[in-house]
Amino acid sequence: MPLEFVNRADYAAIEQGDILELPTVREDLQDGSEVTVHNATQDTQFPAEHSLSARQVEIVLQGGLIEDYKS
Known about the structure:
Helix content: 25-40%
Largest sheet: 4 strands, antiparallel
Oligomer: single chain
């Protein structure tokens, strides 16, 4: 899923090899365009945003295109 930093300064805080997680991505996608990214290596988090359409969000929530076609 393509995400963009809300605050460009957050980009500089990520180190090569850091593990990034999207722990609440499902809820975040249902609520709007901002997603919380958790840096598990540094135990920090920052907001990111997506530019997916409502249809694309629906497809992601279904589990992807193949799952969407099955339903």
